[in-house]
Amino acid sequence: MIVADRKPLVEIQEMVANSRKILVIGCKGCVTVCNVGGLKEAEILASSLRIGRNKNGKPMEIDETVLERQCDPEYIAQLKDKVGNYDAVISMACGVGPQFLSEAYPEQKFFPAVNTKFFGGAVQHGIWEERCAGCGTCVIHHYDGLCPIARCSKSLQHGPCGGSSKGKCEIANDVVCIWDLIVRKKMEQGRLDDLRLFQPAKDWRTARDGGPRRSIREELAS
Amino acid sequence: MTLAEKRKLGSVLVVGAGVAGIQASLDMANSGFYVHLVDRSPSVGGIMAQLDKTFPTNDCAMCVISPFLVEVGRHLNIHVIPCSELERLDGEKGDFKATIVNHPRYIDTEKCTGCGQCRQVCPVVAINEFNCGLDLRKATYIPYPQAVPLAYAIDRNACIGCGMCEKVCLAGAVTYDDKTKITELEVGSVILAPGGEMYDPKEADSWSYSHPNVVTSLEFERILSASGPYRGHLMRPYDREEPEKIAWLQCVGSRDINRAKNSHCSSVCCMYAIKQTMIAKEHSAHELDTAIFYMDMRTYGKDFDKYYSRAKEERGVRFIRSRVHSIEPVENGNLRLRYVKESGESVEEIFNMVVLSVGFKPSSGVETIAKKLGLTLNEQHFFRTGDIRPVATSRDGVYVCGVSHGPKDIPQSVMEASAAASVATSDLSSARWSATRTPQLPPETDFSKMVPRIGVFVCNCGINIGGVADVPAIREYAKTLPHVVHVEDNLFTCSQDTQERMKQVIREKNINRVVVASCSPRTHEPLFQETIREAGLNKYLFEMANIRDQNTWVHKNNPDLATAKAKDLVRMAVAKAEYIEPLHQVKLDVKPAVLIVGGGVAGMEAALGAAEQGFQAYLVEKTDTLGGMAHQLRKTWQGEDIPAYLERLIKDVTNHSKIQIFLNTKPVHFTGTIGSFTTTLNDIHTGNPNGIIEHGAAILATGGREYRPEGYQYGNRPDVMTHLDLDQAMKDTPATVMNADTIVFIQCVGSRNSDRPYCSRVCCTHTLKNAIELKKIKPGMNIFVMYRDVRSYGFRESLYQEARALGVHFIRFDPENPPQMNIAENNILTITVTDHILQRPIVISPDLVVLAAAVLPNENKELFELFKVPVNAEGFLVEAHAKLRPVDFGSEGLFLAGLAHYPKSIDESIAQARAAVSRAVTIVSKDGIMVGGVVAAVNPDRCAVCCTCVRACPYGIPFIGNEGHAVIQQAECHGCGVCVSECPGKAITLQHFTDQQLIAKTRALFYQPAMNE
Amino acid sequence: MSQDFEPQILAFCCKYCAYAAADLAGSMRLNYPPNIKVIQVPCTGRVDIIFLLRAIEEGADGVYVAGCLEGECHFVGGNLRARKRVNYVKKTLAELGIEPERVEMFNLSSAMGPRFAEIAIEMTDRIKKLGPTPVCRLAG
Amino acid sequence: MSELKSGSNLEKVLKAGHFAFTGECGPPRGANIDHLKEKYEPLKGMVDAVNVTDNQTAVVRMSSMAASALLVQAGLEPNYQMVCRDRNRLAMMSDILGAYSLGIRNMLCLSGDHQKFGDHPQSKNVYDIDSMQLISMVKKMRDEGKFLNEDEIDVPPKMFIGAASNPFGDPFEFRIYRLANKIAAGADFIQTQCIYNMPKFREFIKKAVDMGLTEKCFLLAGVTPMKSVGMAKYMKSRVPGMDVPDEIIKRLQGVDKKEVADEGIRIACEQIEEFKEMKGVAGVHLMAIEWEHRVPEIAERAGVLPRPVI
Amino acid sequence: MNPSFEPKILAFLCNWCSYAGADLAGISRIQYPPNIRVIRTMCSGRVDPLFIVNALDEGFDGVYVGGCHIGDCHYQDGNLYTLKRFDALQKLMDLTGISRNRVHLKWASAAEAQIFADNITYVTQVIRDLGPFERDSRLLPLQAMKRTLTSQRYRWLVGIDRKITGDKNVYNEKTPVPLFEKVFSEALQGEYQKALVVECTKDNPLSVHEISGRTGLPPYTISCRLNELSQDGITGIGRVDGRTPKFISRAA
Q1: Can you tell me the ipTM of this complex?
Q2: What pLDDT, in 10s, does the model give residues E32-85?
Q3: What is the side-by-side strand order in the sheet with B616-620?
Q4: Do A60 and A160 reside in the same domain of the chain?
Q5: Which end of chain B is more exposed for a tag (fewer CB within 10 A), N or C?
C-alpha cells in the first residue's frame, strides 16, 4: 500500500491560517491502513486545529468527513454540494487525493495534510518499511525476492558497495544493507552463481525518469 | 423410605464463608443448586480478606477477592447467613435437616446501608480482630470497608447498651431486641469450609511476643496493607520508626512438637514470608535489610521456586538456615537474635522488628463441628480425609475443603472447594434447578425509537450525601437538564421501599432512561439495573453519578464545592443517558456434554465426575490403555493402595453409560465458543476420523512423565534407578532391592536448575515413603538421603519424622557442589558429598542409588495450539488466575487438571480433576448462555480491513471474515475497548461506552445548558 | 495565579483499578480537592486520543488517565496503550503551544486509596500553577 | 598482456612487470590551480600515475577531468576517477571521450559515496548505471568502439580501465566474487581500499591468486600511512567498511606524540615491503591524503625509487 | 512555700442551698477567709467541668463547688449529675498530674452557714498548702483536658452513666458497674492521651519519640493512639525525616 506520514501540525496551521471555515476529508484507503489519514485521524486533526485556533482567540469552524477513496472521481463527486461552502479543504489522502479534488473543483483551495512517502507494508503494528520504488520493470526474481533498486541507497545491481558493514548500509546503522541479505540468502540457498551474471544497464524509461506514466487497459478503457 | 423414594433435595449447606466456602457456593449456585452459606463472623471473606498481597503474582488480595464477595452477596441462589453456626445435622445423604443457631447481630442487614454514622459515635472500643489487634475498633463495627453484606454489627460483650448508635441511625436499622434464633434448613448435602486460624505465639514466651515490635505474619500483612492501620506505610508498632532490619522466623507453631504441640508443616509460611520481604522492600523508601531464618525453604508450588530465587538473587533477601531459639528485647524497641550458622559459628544480630511466620491450626469451629456431626479428626485435630476421596469426610454426604482438613495455600483451597462442590452435588443431579429461584421478569418494552424521557433519582444516603451536599438543590438543578421529565430525592434510594416506588414512577411517567445520583456503580449498578428491568426497561438504559464515594465522602470540608461537583456529575450522567441505547444479550444454546482429553487418573476422575453429574462425557486417550502414570505407582503417601483404586476407577469409567471412551485417538480440529464447541477426533494410527464431538466444555488432562536423568550413570548401570524404577523393582523383583545393604537417595535430580527452574513437589514425599518402607522391612539397611530442602509439606512432615526416627541419614548439599558419583576401576560405585554438619566430604559406596527425578509435562505442542491454550516456559499449562481460577483457562469454557498443570500428588490431581468438573458443569448445566451486552461491534462499511484490531486485541478475538471485513464474535469479546480506540476507520464501537456517549459526558462538564423551558 | 481559580479536571479511570481506588479513598474518608471529575471506562485502553483532545477543546484545564499498575491490567495491556496515547497528546499540545503537563497518565492498583487522593491533589496543584486553559470556553 | 590497451605509462610499467607505485591527489575545493600544483608537484617522478578523485565523499571539488588534464600538462600521468553518483550514462560517455581527447589514458570506475555524507545531502543522486556497468561500458567503447546503444565511435577512447575493491567490506566471503565480476566486466587493474588488517588481506589475495584473478589483471594494494592516533580511531569506528586492527592503534599509542606520524610511515613502509614480495600484488597505491608533500620521503623509505621510465 | 501566699479560689454556689448558706453566714457575721470569688449558678448541675478547668487556666489556684445535699436538690437530681461529673473530672486530673485537691465539691443546705464557712476555711487551707498553681508549666495538660472534656465520647458516657447503670440500658438490663467503669476509664485515658498527642502535633509535625518527650507518654501508647487518630482522619504523616515519620494533626 501507499505509506504516508502526517505533516507537522504547525505546517498545517500555516496553510489554513486565514481560513474561517475548513473541511477535513479522510480517506478510507491506504492512509487508513497506515493509521495516518482515516476518519479517526481526521477527527484528531480537526480537534487539534480547533484547539490551536481557539487558543489564539480566532475560533474557526471545522467539519470532518471521510471518503471511501480519493482516487476515484465518483467518490470525489460525493462532495459536489458540500465542498463549495468552505474556504479551505484539507485532504488527508495520499498525494493523489488533493490532486483529484483540485481537478474536480478548480475554484476551491486544497491542502495536503500528509506527506506521501513510499510503497510498503507493515513489518509490525506501527512500523512500515519501503519495499518498492515503482521502477516499472520488476527484476526481484534475479535477487531472490529482495529488490536492490528500491532498498539499496545506490540501487546497485551487482553486490554491496564498499560501505556495507555488519549488515547495515553506510548511510545509517538502522538501514539494512539489502545486498547483505541478498548475498547471505544466495549463499544459504547455494545459488551464489546467480550473482556472477552481468546485468546490463537498466532501462529506466518505465520508471519515473521516463516521465509521468499512464497505465491503459485497452479492454476496459472506453 | 425405600431406596428409590429417597428424597433428593436441590439445596446445599456450606459452613464457613472464606475463599473456599465462597468458591464452592458460587460453583453450585451457578450449576442449579440453592446454597445456604453460613459464617460465624458478621461478613464473608475469611483470612484472605486480611491479606495485602498474595504470592506468587503479588496481586493485591482484595482486588482479587472483592468481585467474588459482591457476586456471592448478590447471587439470587445464595442465601448468606452471617453470625450463625451449625448446631445439629440429622438425616443422611440427599436429605439432611440442619439446625442453625443465628447469633444476634443487633442490626438489620436489610435496612443497614453501611453509612458508618453509628461507628463514629460509639463510645466503646474493642480489639480489632481484622487488624489482628494492631488497633482498636468500636463496639458497633464492620470488619472491613468492602465487607459483604455491607452492614454493621454490634459486639454484644463490648457494648454497654448506651443507645447512641440508634440515635444517629437514620435507616432505623438498629434492633436491640435481636435474639438468638434457631432455624431449620433442609439440604441435600453439606460442605464444611470453616478454615483455619493462625497459631498464637503467646502460648510460648521464648518469642517474647508481648513486645510490640514482635508481630505475627498476619499482623505484618495488615501493616503492609493500604487499608491497614498504617495505610501501608511500613513502620514499627513500638515507635512508628521505619525499620532498617527485619527478621522473619519460620516454623513458629509448625514442625514444633515440644513448644507448640503442632507436628505438621503449615505449607504456606515459607512462601508468604518471601512475599512479605519483597513487598516490605517495595514499601520502604530506604534500603531495607530482610533476613529469613528457616530449616527447609518449602517453595514447592507452581512458579514458587522462581519466586524464591528471584528474592534471593535479585532482591538481596538473606536466607539463613538456622532455627532461632529466642528473641531478646534490647533498648529502644530493638530485638537481639542469637543463632548458629551452618559452619557452627554463633552470631548475634540486632533487628528493628521480628515477624513470626505463624502456622495454621484448625479453627476453633472444627473441634465443635466434629463433635456435633460425629466426624473423625486426625492427630493434628484437623478433619481426617483420605487420598483417594480427598474431600470426603467420615460421614456420607458431608464434604470438606480448605484449611480445615489440612494446611494449604489459596489455589489448593479453591481447587478443593470446586472439587467438594462437584462431589457434593454429584448424586443430587436429579434435583438440579429444583430449589433455585429464577427472576420473573416482565417483557421488555421497546423504547429505542422514542425521544429520551430521563428520570433522575438523587440519594441522601442518610447524611452521607445529604449531610454535606445540598440534595434538594441538586434535585432542582436536575430539572433544568435536557430531556429530564422527572426528578426526586429520597433518604436511601437502594432501600426496598424506594425501589418499589421507582418502578411505579417509571411506569407512570413512561420514563425510558434512568439516572441515579448516589454511591458507586461498582457495588450498586447491578441492583438498580435489576430494578429498572423489573419495571420493563432494558437494564442498560441506566447511568449512575457517584456523588458519595467520589464526592461527599472526600470533600467533607467544603460542602458548597461538593454540591457544585454533584451538579456537574449529574449533568454529565444525564448527557450520557441521552445517547444510551438498549442492548440485547443473545442466548447461545449449550450442548450438555464435556470433552476430556487424557485418560490418566485426572482424566478418568473428570469423566466420572461429569457423568455422575448427569452429563455425557467423551474421554479421549492417545494411547491404547487408560491409567497413565498411575500404573507405575504403588501407594499414596498415606499408604492407600493405588493399583486397587486404579482398577476400580477404570472399571467404573469403562462401564459408565454416560462415558464414551476413544482410545488411540487425538483431537485434530476444534472450533466454537463457550457452551458449543465442535471437536473432530482422528485415530492416531490410521489417521481417519473416528468421531465429531459436540460439547459445551473441555477439560485437558494430558498428564506428565518422569524425567530421564542424564548424569549419574543412569541407564548404563542396573544399580542406578529412578523412583518409578524402584517401585517397579519392589513390585516385581523385591529381592534385588532388599539384599542391598546401603541405599543412597539423591534429591532434586533435574529439578530446580536453570533448564527446569521449578520444584517437582512429589519426589521428597516419594523418597521418604520408600525409605520408611525399606527400613521397616530391613532395619539393618543403611539409607542415606542427599537433599537440598526436604519439602514434605503439610501432614507429610510426619513421614520426615518417622524416617529420621527409623535411622535414615539425611545429608544436605548445596547446588554448587552436588554429590559426585565415581566408578572405581573394579566397577564399584562410590558417592562423595560434603556433610553439612561435619563440613567435610564423606564417601559412601551404596549397593543402590535412587535418583529423585523431576516431573515433566507431556509434550503436546500441536494439541495445545489446536485449543489455543498457553504453556509456560517449562511446558506446563497456564491457568487463567493462579489464585482464584486455578483450573480455568484464560479462554472461556476450557479447563485443566493433573500433572499437565504442574507436578502434584495423586490426591491433589483427583481434587483438581473434580474441581475442573465443577467449573465445567457451571456451563453445561445451563440451557443457554447470555452473551453480548458491553461488547465491541463492527460497522462493516467503515472497515478498511487494515488488521489493526486483529493485532491490538489482547485475546486475539477479531479476525477478517470472508465477507471482507473484521468480525468480532459477541460470545468471545471481553469488552475492554482497546480495538475501538485503535481502529483508524472508527469502524468499531463498544456498546454502552460509545465515542458519542463518552464525548457527550466530557462536553457536559463545560457546557452549561440553556434553561430547560 | 489567582487563588480563587478552581480548575476543571477530568479523570478517565478504569473500572477495575483506578475507579475502585477512588471508591476506597471515599470509604476511607480521605480528602482531595473537588476539581476532579471522574469518567469510568472499562479499561484505559478504551480512552481514545480524541477524548483527551475534545476535553481540552471543550475547555478542560487538565485531563488525566488513571489505569492499573503496569503488568496488572485486567485486559493484559490496555494501560500500556493508554500511556502511548497520552504521550501523543502531550506532543500535539506542545506543538499547539499548550503546556503538555495539562495531560498525564497514572498507574495504581485498586487497593491504593491513598495514592488516588495523592494523584488528585498533585494534579490540582499542578494545574493551579499552570493557570486556566488558554482555550477559551465557547458559550453555547 | 603483450599489446598495450591504452599505452598509458601505468600500463607500460605494469605490463613490463615492474612494481607499480601510484599516488593520489584530491582536487581543490575551489578553482585555485596553485593549490593543485602544490599537491602534484612533489609527486613528480615519484609515482607512475596519480589518482584524481571525483567529488570524494560527495563533497564538491574541482572536476576530476579538469584536474587530470592539468596534470597531463604538468607531465604527470593522471588516473581519472569517475563515480556513478553524479552523472547518467550520457554524461559519462561524453566525459570519457573528453578525457581521452585531453590525453588521459587511465580511468578508475567507482560507485561513489552516497550524497548523505557530502556537503549537499539535499541533492538528487543519479546511479543510472552502477560501477560494474560503467567498467563494461568503457571496455565496450575501447574494444568495440561502440556507444552503449551500439552506435559506432569514430575515435574510440583507449582507456586503461581500473576499478576499486574493498577486501574488508561485508559480507567478506562475497568480496572475492565481486572482484572476479569486475575483472570479467573488463577491469584491467584494481586498486584496493587502504589495508591495515594484513592477515585478512593475505587471505583475500591468496584466494584471488588461486582463482587466477591476478593473472587477468593487475592488483595494487592500497596504503594510507596513519598520521595520528585520532585518525586511526576515527577510521576504525566512523568509516564504514574500514577494518583497523587494535595492534595498529596500540603501536601508534606506543610512541610519544611527536613520533606518531613517523611511526605511521614506518608501518606503511613495512606493508609496502611485504607487498613487494607478496604473490599477486602488482604494485602499491599510496593514498597520502593531505600528505602529498611527504610522498617523496615515503617513496624513498619504501625503496620504490627511481620510477621506471619506459 | 512562701508564707505570704494567698490562693485565689473560684467558688460556684448553687442558688438554692450554698449561695443561700453563704448569705446566711454573712447575716450571722460568721467569718471565713476572703480567698473565694463566688459565681452563683441555679444548680450545681449547671457547672460544666470545663468551667473548672478554665478557672485554673485563667489563674485561679483552686475551685470550690457547692450544692445541696443529695435528695434536697431543688431540681430533683441536679446534684446527682454534679457528683458524677466531679468524680469523672477528678479521675481525669489524676491522669494529668494536677493534684485533685485543687477542686472540691461540698454539699451544704441553705441553713448550714457554719458548715459553709468551715468548708471554705478548710478548702482555702488545703489549697494554700498546695501552693500556687503553676499554670505556665501545665499548658499542655490543661489544653488536653479541655479537649477531653469537650469530646463527645467523654460527655456522652458521663451523661448516660446514671441511666444505664442505675436504671436500664437499651437491652432492658442494668449495665454492670465494673463494665461501665472499665469502659469509662478506657475512654477517659484514650481521649486524654489522644488530646495530648493532638495538642502537641497541631502546629508542627513531631515524631513519636518527640511526642513522648513532650507528653511523657511511652512511645507504644502514642503509637496506639495514633491509630485511632488516623482512623478519625485527624492525624496523619506530615513528612518523613530519614526513617522517622513526623505526625501532624488537623485539629477540626
Answers
A1: 0.72
A2: 999 999 999 999 999 999 999 999 999 999 999 999 999 888 898 888 999 999
A3: B659-662, B616-620, B593-597, B697-700, B894-896
A4: no
A5: C
